[in-house]
Amino acid sequence: MFDIFIVVAILVTFFYVIQKYVLKQEDTKRYQYRVKGPVLSANEGAFYNALVAAVGEHGVVLTRVAMSSVLTPHKATNKKAWFIANNYISRSYFDYLVCDARTLEPRVVLELDNGKALDKGKVEREKLVMQVCKSANLPLIGANIKLSYQVGKLRRLLATHIDLIEPDKEVRFCKRCGSPMILKVASQGEYKGRRFFTCSRQPHCTYTENYNVVFDEMEQNALPTLFNEQ
């Protein structure tokens, strides 16, 4: 009986030494790796560059962000439910994520339609993205690959969710009469505290505009010209 115990102890010690010192050293040398290439395809990279230009200094654009790095299960009844919910998102990602420039808090998710036909995997992933964003109250924008060359349109899509306007630098003209607009803050009513633009010719011109409406530079520059020609 004592001999059997000695043999078992020796075997256990042997396997422990093999696993700790031999196998680990072998594993580090067994596999070699190489860089696959660009993280994004040419189309995805073009869209990323347009998105960065649209956001400017008002946010940080991240790409291929793991869902589990952004979201965590909420109101899970027990640990098992938490792990199941977390596993549900652990293998998926967001195409693009725009975060607050200072805190890196997630602001809006963008999913890119690359124009390719929908397969079962792509459909399931789109359903997952829509469901988790809705559940987490995280804004989701579906964007077409054609927007890679339309920074102005991207800014319009983003303006609802992140602040793209610098009031000290913003020069805005009334779309009704062409006069300069003034930035004001609502002091009463349903929109109390919200910023908005109003025509400097009030009360003669009552045109107002949401603070976060964004226009192309060409559009803005054309307004006073059109007005002067009338």
% residues in beta strands: 15-25%
- CATH-level-2 architecture of the largest domain: 3-Layer(aba) Sandwich
Radius of gyration: 28 Å
> What is the arithmetic mean of pLDDT?
79
- Can you count the helices? 7
Share of helix, binned: 40-55%
Q: Helices and strands: which structural class?
A: alpha+beta
3D shape: elongated
Write down the CATH class of the largest domain: Alpha Beta
Main beta-sheet annotation: 4 strands, mixed
Transmembrane segments: 6-23
Protein name: DUF2726 domain-containing protein
Domain DUF2726: 38-158
Keywords: Membrane, Transmembrane, Transmembrane helix
Write the topology of this structure:
Blueprint: H1 2-30, H2 42-55, E1 59-66, H3 67-70, H4 79-90, E2 93-100, E3 106-113, H5 120-136, E4 140-144, H6 151-159, E5 181-185, E6 195-199, E7 208-210, H7 217-229
Parallel strand pairs: 3-4
Antiparallel strand pairs: 1-2, 2-3, 5-6, 6-7
Helix pairs in contact: 2-6
Explain what you see:
InterPro entries: DUF2726 (IPR024402), UCP028063_topo_Znf (IPR014538). This is DUF2726 domain-containing protein. Keywords: Membrane, Transmembrane, Transmembrane helix. With 230 residues, this protein is of the alpha+beta class. The chain folds into 2 domains: 42-159, 3-Layer(aba) Sandwich (Trna Endonuclease, Chain: A, domain 1); 181-229, no CATH class. The chain contains 7 helices and 7 strands. It has helices at 2-30, 42-55, 67-70, 79-90, 120-136, 151-159, 217-229; strands spanning 59-66, 93-100, 106-113, 140-144, 181-185, 195-199, 208-210. The chain has a 4-stranded mixed beta sheet, sandwiched between helices. β3, α5 and β4 (140-144) form a beta-alpha-beta unit. α2 packs across α6. The relative contact order is 0.10. The model is unreliable at 215-230 (pLDDT under 50).
